[in-house]
Amino acid sequence: MTEGNFVDYVKIYAQSGNGGKGSVHLHREKYITKGGPDGGDGGRGGHVIMRGNENLWTLVNFKFKKHFRAGHGGHGSKQRSTGADGDDVYLDVPLGTVVKHAETQEVLFEITEHGEEKILVEGGMGGRGNWHFKSSTNQTPRYAQPGIPGQEIDVIFELKVLADVGLVGFPNAGKSTLLSVITSAKPKIADYEFTTLKPNLGIVEHRDYQSFVMADIPGIIEGAAEGKGLGHYFLRHIERNATLLFLIPADSKDIGKEYHILLDELRRYNPELLDKERLIAISKSDMLDDELKAEIRVELDKELGNVPYLFISSVAQQNITELKDRLWAMLNNEKVVE
Ligand SMILES: Nc1nc2c(ncn2[C@@H]2O[C@H](COP(=O)(O)OP(=O)(O)OP(=O)(O)O)[C@@H](O)[C@H]2O)c(=O)[nH]1
Ligand SMILES: [Mg+2]
Hints:
binds guanosine-5'-triphosphate, binds magnesium ion, Rossmann fold, 2 domains, alpha/beta, five-stranded mixed β-sheet
């Protein structure tokens, strides 16, 4: 998945179709002079409908086409003939698409299942033809209902990535490198901060054809909640992850402190993020010798509480299999035998 195509936020205009007009018609036939009203109903205007599709991963289909209009209902006609319903328009979206009202930001609904359909804007009802209005006092009504006009709406589609494991770390922690080592994803990697601007997803193939999805997101820094760095807007991508993998580089000045800053930023974005299971990986551990590792262990046992941690190196492939085992166990609620 290239960065340019990972579209996770779009603004869309949708308009449903007008209902068709009911018909005013009086039945006429050669030898029948007063045949009575027979004007048919107008057809329903088309809906704009959203539909979940598990084969889509981004909102890239909405990058260029952002306006959608459903068809209008046909008008009723003689012999009680009902107008055709307007054509519905379907918008296929990936699972995890949240739909918000563009002005109020109110969340309207969320698409989470394959094949799930939700009407975004409802087509107008067709008007009733004049034959409905025949009564004992009015045998030949000369009116019918107009159709109800369609509606329009401006909405935002926001995609929350559905991954099993979300990577959390400061910029430059080695998140993208890890993703590139344990999945076939090819994220951009560089020795500067904020290399990753959009989330990347990768599938981790594990023992015996098991697999799980990992999401690499942009780095978080202290003050992200106030908009520092790239802000914390993209943290929505880890809201649905089952497990969070914190990545803190071995050369960090204070691993414990860095961890608590990250936790704090998550808490400020959404306290529920702290309910997720966590694992800490000390990345770039190829830079440590055994003595340094032992020293860091003493520190971490004091500062991290019960949160499990392990030393890894993506570059030197150290402890990568163990990392996958741990994540797999966490995702499946297994206890790891150490
Ligand atoms: N020595 C060593 N360096 C590593 C390792 N993993 C990553 N690096 C280096 O750390 C730097 C940052 O790596 P990235 O994977 O781009 O870091 P990131 O966390 O994705 O950074 P942002 O996208 O900016 O948030 C690169 O220069 C990597 O080569 C590792 O296991 N060992
Ligand atoms: Mg990165």
